[in-house]
Amino acid sequence: MAKRLNHLARFWSVTDFGRPDIAAYATDWVLSDTRRGIMTMAVVSLLLQAGAAILYRAQGIAEPHVYTYTLLAVLSLHVLVSSRLVHQIEALYLLGISLLAVSASAYALLAHIGGLDSAMLMASIVLLFLVVPLVPWGLRESLAVFTLIFLLFALSILSVGERFDGLSFWTLIVLMLASGLTACVLSANNTAMWKRDIEARYDLESAQRELKRLALRDHLTGAWNRRFLESSYHEITSRFYAEAGGFHFAMIDVNDFKQLNDSFGHEVGDQVLQCITKAFTERLEDCGYFVRLGGDEFVALFESDDPEALLRDCARDVGIVGDHMHPIRISMGLVSVEATCPQPLTCCYREADVALYKAKLQKGKSDAVAHIERELLNHVVPIKGRLSPDEEGQAP
């Protein structure tokens, strides 16, 4: 039963996708496609009404017909212009339904004036239903329009049934039922196809985003990788310059990582790298990025009022990994860059590497979990050699 209801929902409403993520994604598509459909329906109606007015005028037929079709053409033009200015899906639906309902009322009035024998009137009524599928609305809206128009005509004619012969009346009823049901079926089918297209497009874009994310992530630790750092450095630091007045760039290295690998195996080494990534990522989640360059080398790119305290907290969070109870000690080279003197990635990388080397010299003199050397880059650091603008944004 639930499966049948889900299948019906695909036809029933153009906005009901059964998944909030796709519904949010489709909002702009629904609005733009509905506007385009209403505008198309208004253009078709404008051409038909104006053509009918000109034809009646040329044949010298009663003036009420000319006036009625002319006014309907003006209404179609109004809907065409208004639909460009409306930004709510409900308002667009209301414009479309109003055009159809007013047109149906006008045709009913013409039927009272000139009878049901006019071929032009019959054709106008049928075309009134057939323009419904031009708008991407679901079976719900199509049935509402069909019911509104059908009841309006049927009740209007039945109220003075003695004025119309039975054959003309039943011919009109059959034409309205056939064209209305055809319009509803076409609308439902179009809605299902449109929603499948939106879902396929969403899934494709989601897959592309996931592939891009995987390409920018380290497969072992889940940290950002060097490619991400190189491609996003300018965007990230520009935001830090604007919001925080600068940023901090830390090169991070695990002390005696090779010895740890040799003593306990690469599995424990991998656990250490994963634990470091988890600790730093959680601390930096709201203020920066954590990147694995390769091996046991990492980079933290972040903003903070007290960067050394933040990095030490991260190092303490790493704690003890595995059953071997092997303490993890980390050395870090930290450089701080001010917005008044922005630096390319190559300079940050090189100066942080120098600071990291100084920090590693202290590892044998203290049992601290983190040894940090910090430098403030408040001057232009000379770049060795001549680099192109693209190369200046990349780490060596």
From N to C, what is the helix and strand string? HHHHHHHEHEHHEEHEEEHEH
Low-pLDDT stretches are 383-396
Described by the principal axes of the CA atoms, the overall outline is elongated
Which range does the strand content fall in? Answer: 5-15%
Overall radius of gyration: 36 Å
- How many individual β-strands? 8
Which structural class matches the secondary elements? Answer: alpha/beta
Structurally, how many domains make up the residues?
2
Number of helices, where a helix is a run of at least 4 consecutive DSSP H or I residues: 13
Q: How can the largest sheet be summarized?
A: 6 strands, mixed
Tell me the distance between the termini. 61 Å
Query: What is the topology, as strand order, of the major beta sheet?
Result: 1-3-4-2-7-8
Question: Key features?
Answer:
13 helices; elongated; 2 domains
Please characterize this protein's 3D structure.
- 66% of the residues lie in helices and 11% in strands.
- It has 396 residues and is α/β, with parallel strands linked by helices.
- It has 2 domains: 208 residues, no CATH class; 169 residues, Alpha-Beta Plaits (2-Layer Sandwich), CATH 3.30.70.
- Strands 1-3-4-2-7-8 form a 6-stranded mixed beta sheet. Strands 5-6 form a two-stranded antiparallel sheet.
- The longest helix has 50 residues.
- It starts with a helix and ends with a helix.
- The C terminus is likely disordered.
Task: State the gist of this model.
The protein is α/β, with parallel strands linked by helices. The protein has helices at 2-12, 20-59, 63-85, 89-114, 119-130, 139-158, 166-215, 226-244, 257-264, 266-284, 307-318, 345-360, 389-392; strands at 224-225, 246-254, 288-294, 297-302, 320-321, 326-327, 330-338, 370-377.
